[in-house]
Amino acid sequence: MGTDIIILGIESSCDDTSAAVLRNGVLLSNVTASQDVHKAYGGVVPELASRAHQQNIVPVVDQALKRAGVTKEDLSAIAVTLGPGLMGSLLVGVSFAKGLAISLGIPLIEANHLQGHILALFLREKDSTETPPPLPYLCLLVSGGNSQIVKVNAYNDMEVLGQTIDDAAGEAIDKCSKVMGLGYPGGPIIDKLARQGNPDAFRFSKPHIPGLDYSFSGLKTSFLYFLRDRLKEDPQFIEHHKADLAASLERTIVDILMKKLTMAVKQTGIKHVAVAGGVSANTGLRNAFHEKAEKSGWHIYIPKFSYTTDNAAMIAITGYYKFMDHDFCPIDKPAYSRVTI
Ligand code: KG4
Fold first, then answer.
1. Where are the domains of the chain?
2. Which of 7, 90, 172, 331 is the most exposed place for a label (fewest CB within 10 A)?
């Protein structure tokens, strides 16, 4: 393989075990094993997640290497998510990555899961033609655990301009969907239902907090009380209004997200705007971005569908940039459950 730089990325921060291989910044493989075991509980059960990672990690890494057509001896370095995430889940990926790096005598690279989501936009496939955003750009990072507006100055220099003071957008969607008796995770189900509903059918409370911060706990409570009252009048209310409820909920969340993002664009004068994280798969949010591009002249950057939720490709690209900078991780650095960007 000569002087090729080949990075193995490993991600196990929540309920997806994923491994990816990059050669010279180009993605060769990205393999993810999701965990259906949590569906029955309506949320991720940490202990079950750790056990499933334990079962998945070896076959997932093996598949990623095979699909990339490389052997472990070809690897230049291993990048792994050190945090934030569930500690028991992180430890599986981190311990595996450390063991493999030591046995191969190659460097370990630390990846921050949140930075990974943001850097997913820099992933290139063999024939990809998309251009990444120019620096600096703004990124709306919206996932099950985070809702932040981030100013990206460089791959390793990111500034949080605003963030949620309570629940994340994805968490709010998941909780509201649970109240409606829908499955887990709620995001994709709400998205699908919303396409058939009227987004103006119902109104839910929107937060009034200063600056660029978000809040979603009020919306969740207002949704819960609204349903409780309507169900008293009509026990079939949810069943009769499923699509309208989903569309109105999605509209409210997208409005909340876009309002602060628009403020951030005005404040910074930066019109290159990206979106990242699991909720960036949402159709309503994607449509709102396209509308901003048309009406307000934003240059928008939306990751490919497969790189919106947790994946190791984004960890591998983070690793690639750090490798180029010789930014390696001490082998004794522990995993961390909480951290900002
Ligand atoms: O980034 P991610 O996979 O995991 C975290 O690191 O949190 O995000 C998961 C979140 C979940 O809350 C899920 O419901 C939401 O992303 N999500 C969506 C959609 N697909 C996933 N939310 C709205 N619309 C979607 N299509």
1. 6-123+308-324, 137-302
2. 331
